């Protein structure tokens, strides 16, 4: 790595506050004091032309989203974000200002969630990609996928299908819509995850679409589920363009899907109300065959296939 | 992600022992009990046609090397390896058996060093890349780059320049040599790092070539250095093909460069002798201008530029 690259790393780092750690960026490893609670760690990558295109996403969008998808994993466990590492694979022709745009998008979201960049790695590559490892600390038991029991009530946060609609808008050549903003700038539900950890028996973040992700939860918990299609929280635009079936397959929602034991639903709903967190009851776990999802009332539900970002969005 | 990919992840994971952690692969995050000592974390990527080519490296080589470069960072801090996360970016045409080869190469080295795979991520991409985050635990203070003082004695482990010579051999069309093995299968100096943490004032692993990496150590420590070219540990093959100047620029050695206070050198050498770790005195830190490296005796040293793997190896 030449001196030019070292100064580029320094300029990238200058967008982030200095991490309060024993050893931060610049040594072989970052060194972190041991935490009090258990640690949650996750790794997730955004790859050019799979998860984003440079034609549709600004560098700030890409930086934001790369960190957001990792924060969403921490949120899904009920962890408080602590630190992250960032590996950048950079095409040689990438303009320097694009790299600094990535840093700005990432650092704004990092600051919002109080997560510190403690180290990273730059390498050249043909396609742009960002791989982030994020770590958080638990003060409760983690929200896992496997803790659900028949009778637990299913909730989702926010609205569904928006990011998928945003992708369609981009592919149609539109530049701006609230759905496009949801596609480019997902908001990880960190505060809701911390709150939900006191109530939930199981949960995860919805990245592959509600249908697929509910299937994951059910298989891990050994339950079936009943879902009310009419209960799904959809914006008018999503209802008109995709309908409930389309929203079920709406990848990249980055909302939380939570299973709450029936005895705890009232307290959970009150806590969400006080915190200003929007959650919607959409069904319940059942004793049915593991992974089988029916419509509320008993009809079996035709489940759409999951959704695979830009590349499949184009070729399917 | 389709069901096919889930079963591929399961087959990949089946090459690794089940991690002894609260929550392992398959949930949104891995959950790890808090450690006793401070934690070292690092992230490093291997990218196709930059760090390896599929023509020259078997999948096992690639899996081994991707983990080895991260273990080397832990070794450089004096940390005991604990867990790692692995993000794979996979071209769609990559044969399934290649993926399982990656797993085999990685798991053999992981087992050797007692490090557990606790999670990961698969994505499609045009070029193959592997990004790993590795974490280790400290029982001592970390070995940093910044702790060196004038008078500290410089040591390197093993021999230098071998991996660079191996790269040249591959580019010349040779298939097999001990240098090629060093290029493909670097041996991270984990045991030496643990031992050295009791003695060293500073250190790092030699990934960019001794000349560059000694420069990093000197600038971080605010020292100069004197180096004995005739003292560098070189194999006969490296001495003949590259000479000391070539070995100075020999990237990807993954040996350790350590600064030991003069009062501790005897004890350090005895401890290395007992442990069967080969280390060689090559010079010392000086009060000279930070980063300035001279030849022992006072002549200033013409330092070769660093070395940038396959891509630059071809285009320079």
What does this structure look like?
Two copies of one chain form a homodimer. Chain A has helices spanning 3-13, 59-77, 96-113, 162-171, 178-184, 190-196, 210-221, 236-241, 243-248, 265-275, 309-315, and strands spanning 30-32, 39-47, 80-90, 116-124, 129-137, 153-157, 202-206, 224-227, 255-260, 279-286, 293-295. With 316 residues, the first copy, chain A, is an alpha+beta fold. Chain A folds into two domains: 3-137, PurM-like, N-terminal domain (60s Ribosomal Protein L30, Chain: A); 153-315, Alpha-Beta Complex (Phosphoribosyl-aminoimidazole Synthetase, Chain A, domain 2). In chain A, strand 3, helix 3 and strand 4 (116-124) form a beta-alpha-beta unit. The N and C termini of chain A lie far apart (40 Å). Chains A and B meet through strand 1, strand 2, helix 2, strand 3 and strand 4 of A and strand 1, strand 2, helix 2, strand 3 and strand 4 of B.
């Amino acid at each position: 790595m030449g001196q030019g690259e070292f100064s580029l790393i320094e300029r990238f780092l200058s967008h982030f506050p200095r991490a309060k750690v024993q050893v931060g960026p610049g040594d072989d490893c970052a060194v972190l004091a041991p935490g009090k609670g258990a640690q949650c760690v996750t790794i997730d990558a955004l790859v050019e032309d799979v998860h984003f295109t440079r034609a549709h996403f600004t560098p700030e969008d890409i930086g934001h989203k790369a960190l957001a998808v990792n924060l969403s994993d921490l949120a899904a466990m009920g962890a408080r974000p602590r630190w992250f590492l960032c590996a950048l694979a950079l095409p040689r022709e990438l303009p320097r200002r694009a790299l600094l745009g990535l840093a700005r998008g990432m650092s704004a979201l990092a600051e919002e969630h109080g997560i510190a960049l403690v180290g990273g790695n730059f390498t050249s590559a043909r396609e742009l990609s960002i791989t982030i490892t994020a770590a958080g600390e638990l003060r409760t038991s983690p929200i896992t996928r496997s803790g659900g029991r028949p009778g637990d009530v299913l909730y989702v946060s926010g609205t569904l299908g928006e990011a998928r609609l945003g992708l369609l808008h981009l592919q149609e050549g539109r530049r701006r819509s609230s759905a496009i903003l949801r596609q480019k700038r997902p908001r990880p539900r960190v505060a809701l995850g911390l709150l939900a950890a006191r109530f939930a028996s199981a949960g995860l973040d919805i990245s592959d679409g509600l249908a697929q992700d509910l299937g994951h939860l059910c298989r891990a918990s050994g339950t079936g589920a009943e879902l009310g299609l009419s209960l799904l929280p959809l914006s008018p635009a999503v209802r008109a363009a995709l309908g409930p079936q389309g929203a079920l397959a709406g990848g990249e929602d980055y909302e939380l899907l939570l299973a709450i034991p029936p005895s705890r639903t009232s307290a959970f709903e009150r806590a969400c109300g006080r915190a200003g967190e929007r959650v919607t009851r959409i069904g319940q776990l059942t004793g049915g065959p593991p992974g089988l999802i029916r419509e509320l009332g008993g009809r079996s539900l035709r489940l759409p296939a999951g959704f695979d970002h830009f590349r499949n969005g184009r070729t399917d």
